[in-house]
Specification:
Blueprint: H1 5-19, H2 49-60, H3 64-74, H4 80-90, H5 98-123, H6 128-131, H7 150-165, H8 170-186, H9 192-212, H10 266-274, H11 279-290, H12 293-304, H13 311-339, H14 344-347, H15 367-382, H16 387-403, H17 409-430
Helix pairs in contact: 3-8, 4-5, 5-7, 5-9, 5-13, 7-8, 7-9, 8-9, 11-16, 13-15, 13-17, 15-16, 15-17, 16-17
């Protein structure tokens, strides 16, 4: 079997990169909602020798429960557990806060991580396991300075975001954050002072970004006005009718890529009624209707590419994806409530969708198709060798709404085109953030 020199060099280069210092220049990357990370540079840490005995003592008295906590909080990126928690909440949040809360969690985690990296490499404090041989690293050794603790930064952000948007969870999230910080100390990878400093930094930046985005959501309730006529969606209790007035992050406005009005759906309706559902089409419809496919796919790719051990780059990826989700939602809802596009089962009341019941908002354009299109283009930027796979998944997601009988094909095609435009605008901005380097595209 012949050996390919280029592949061997790539593997060696990747291995070398993964064992070098993690993104020492990440403190210079551009942030989203804070103007300068230097404003948030922490004071020089004190001597660490007094803290060694604390860590050594905790390691000696660890039991299986404590070890399980170490492993639990070490899984994935510093923000992984918090993002999974948010994922289970925001999609079911009908209070208008969900889209903004989800976006802010990831963006604030990224901004705070950049700020943390500025402090890390300003002082280069050694990790406890490297500072004293009494302390053992119970997890793979992080390749970055200890101060401040990046997992504690993410915990501080989470406490700030969840406490603000979901105050009933405040006490629970605070206790979870303490467990996360304790886990890093017991793992031998952070001094207690690292965790305290990281938590306060993350919480401070979260609060700053909450203040920065306080006017993103409209202050007025929906006025109840809707167009009259048989050609319009006429469902009861429309969901998020004022989302079109949300302030966007990258787009100039929610209407920047607003498409033209929908056509008469007579031909679309004929195609939909003539389509014969089969096992594949029905399973495709239910799969995309019931699973957080894009969110799960991104976390899986972060693991597959070993980016979970590169907190700044993983945080950047999560932030860009969250902005794509947010701006895409706002742009899509702008079009939905500009045109009030009718759904198939309303256009022809003899038609019965495979998915039984349409979502409680207008159909044109398709939200699934638009978000899928955005995510596919962003993921293709993150992981360019798999761009064909992501784009195929976007088409599959769009087609699932046709398969489910709740969208006309036109809804999907227009949404796919809109999504590409939104993603292009986002990528145009992020390519100048100082971090536009992808090892896997070389």
């Amino acid at each position: 079997m012949k050996k390919n020199p280029s592949i061997i060099l790539a593997i060696v280069g990747l291995t070398t990169c993964l064992h070098a210092q993690v993104e020492p220049d990440a403190g210079k990357w551009k942030t989203w909602f804070i103007p300068s990370v230097e404003t948030y540079r922490l004071p020089k840490p004190g001597p660490w020798k007094e803290e060694v005995s604390q860590i050594a003592s905790r390691q000696k008295t660890m039991d299986s429960v404590a070890l399980q906590q170490v492993m639990y909080w070490n899984a994935g990126t510093p923000g992984y557990r918090w993002q999974r928690m948010m994922q289970n909440i925001w999609m079911n949040d009908t209070s208008y806060n969900g889209a903004l809360a989800n976006m802010l969690l990831s963006v604030a985690t990224y901004d705070a991580t950049v700020a943390a990296w500025d402090t890390k490499y300003a002082f280069n404090r050694p990790r406890p396991f490297a500072a004293d041989n009494q302390i053992k690293a119970l997890i793979p050794k992080p390749e970055s300075p200890s101060y401040p603790c990046e997992h504690s930064v993410a915990a501080g952000v989470a406490v700030g975001i969840f406490s603000h948007f979901y105050p009933l969870l405040a006490d629970s999230v605070q206790r979870m954050a303490q467990r996360a910080m304790d886990a890093r100390i017991m793992a031998g990878v952070a001094f207690p002072s690292d965790t305290r400093a990281g938590f306060e930094l993350g919480k401070k930046i979260a609060e700053k970004e909450i203040e920065h985005t306080k006017n993103f959501l409209p202050g007025k309730a929906w006025d109840g006005k809707r167009p009259q006529g048989e050609a319009y969606w006429k469902g009861e209790q429309p969901m998020f009718p004022t989302a079109r007035h949300y302030k966007t992050v990258v787009l100039d406005s929610s209407s920047q890529f607003r498409p033209g009005p929908p056509p008469d759906f007579a031909k679309d309706m004929e195609e939909l009624k003539n389509y014969k559902p089969n096992f594949y089409s029905m399973s495709n419809a239910f799969y995309w209707a019931s699973q957080p496919v894009w969110e799960d796919m991104l976390q899986r790719k972060i693991f597959e590419y070993n980016l979970h051990i590169n907190p700044p780059r993983a945080a950047r990826i999560n932030a860009i994806a969250a902005i794509g989700m947010y701006d895409g939602f706002v742009a899509c809802w702008d079009a939905k409530y500009t045109y009030w596009g009718i759904r198939p089962e309303q256009y022809d009341t003899t038609f019965h969708p495979v998915l039984f019941q349409s979502p409680p908002f207008p159909g044109y354009p398709s939200g699934h198709a638009m978000i899928g299109s955005i995510m596919a283009e962003l993921y293709a930027y993150f992981f360019p060798s798999e761009k064909s796979f992501f784009r195929r998944k976007a088409k599959e997601a769009a087609e699932s709404r046709f398969h489910g009988g709740i969208h006309f094909r036109t809804d999907n095609e227009v949404a796919l085109d809109m999504g590409k435009k939104v993603a292009a605008a986002i990528l145009n901005k992020v390519r100048s953030d100082g971090a536009d380097f992808n090892l896997f595209s070389k």
